[in-house]
UniProtKB/TrEMBL annotation, chain B:
The keyword Membrane applies. This is DUF6755 family protein. The chain crosses the membrane at residues 16-40, 52-74. The lineage of its organism: Bacteria, Pseudomonadati, Bacteroidota, Flavobacteriia, Flavobacteriales. It comes from the Bacteria. It comes from Flavobacterium chungangensis.
Length: 169, 84
């Protein structure tokens, strides 16, 4: 096929005479499109891995003062933000007397979660997700992961939080 | 040049239909697995489990290469090259 013929063919392919030819997608093109999507997903996976290894999320450094024990009644909660960060946290005073601190963002779609007093459950009102207030684990609903947790340190009457260390590992 | 392929295709015109359908079926299967891998990788990355990310990426890469190589078998059609 000469160069001129080739040009003519391409011209016809880009601007077909018949409407049907211009709107239909052939299975051949669909197969190529699926391969393109496949390549996109591969690049996406690569970006997720690269982001996790090259730009890891900032961890909480050191201990941060939240409030005094008397400021937070049994079954009560208190929202706080650590200096230099915009992530909202809640401090929960469980009915058993223990303190727990969690990120206030639901792991499903980042809605603000709240503690239901007397139930031991942290609840997300958007899609009825429930977390265990003791461990942060998912009890019910769509959230795929446990709530990120901070470790609560009591120093006398003052409550501090620091990065959570997984004691099981 | 041998006319074997051409005459085969003319004798069994449905064969290309089956080949193309199978090809698309396998590509859809690959893409589904890749979506699952990406979903798992994202969830684990947000949960700070890094060990799964590289294997998920390698799996996704292999699936893409399989799909890309698969395109080699994409039939050109029975009558496209009949002019020559």
């Amino acid at each position: 096929m000469s160069k001129e013929d080739n040009l003519k063919e391409n011209w016809k392919k880009d601007f077909p005479y018949k409407k049907q030819e211009s709107t239909q997608v052939s299975r051949r093109d669909f197969a190529k499109f699926l391969t393109l999507v496949s390549g996109g997903l591969m690049v996406g996976s690569g970006l997720v891995a690269a982001k996790a290894y090259l730009l890891p999320a900032d961890e909480v450094v050191g201990e941060h003062f939240v409030c005094d024990v008397k400021d937070i009644p049994l079954g009560g909660t208190r929202g706080f933000v650590i200096e230099g960060s915009s992530i909202p946290y809640i401090l929960v005073h469980l009915e058993s007397g223990m303190f727990r601190a969690f990120e206030q963002k639901c792991t499903h779609l980042s809605c603000a979660v709240y503690y239901k007093p007397g139930t031991g459950i942290i609840h997300c009102p958007c899609h009825e997700g429930s977390f265990d207030a003791l461990t942060g684990d998912v009890i019910a609903g769509p959230p795929p992961r446990a709530l990120p947790q901070l470790e609560v340190v009591l120093k006398g009457e003052k409550i501090f939080v620091k990065a959570f260390e997984n004691k099981a590992s | 040049m041998s006319t074997f392929r051409k005459s085969q295709n003319q004798a069994n015109p449905n064969k290309l239909n089956v080949i193309l359908s199978t090809l698309i079926f396998v590509l859809i299967l690959n893409v589904s697995i890749q979506i699952w891998l990406l979903y798992a990788a994202l969830n684990n990355a947000l949960d700070n489990n890094k060990e799964i990310l590289i294997p998920a990426f390698i799996g996704s890469l292999i699936l893409f290469l399989i799909g890309f190589g698969w395109l080699y078998y994409l039939p050109k059609g029975n009558f496209r090259n009949n002019k020559t």
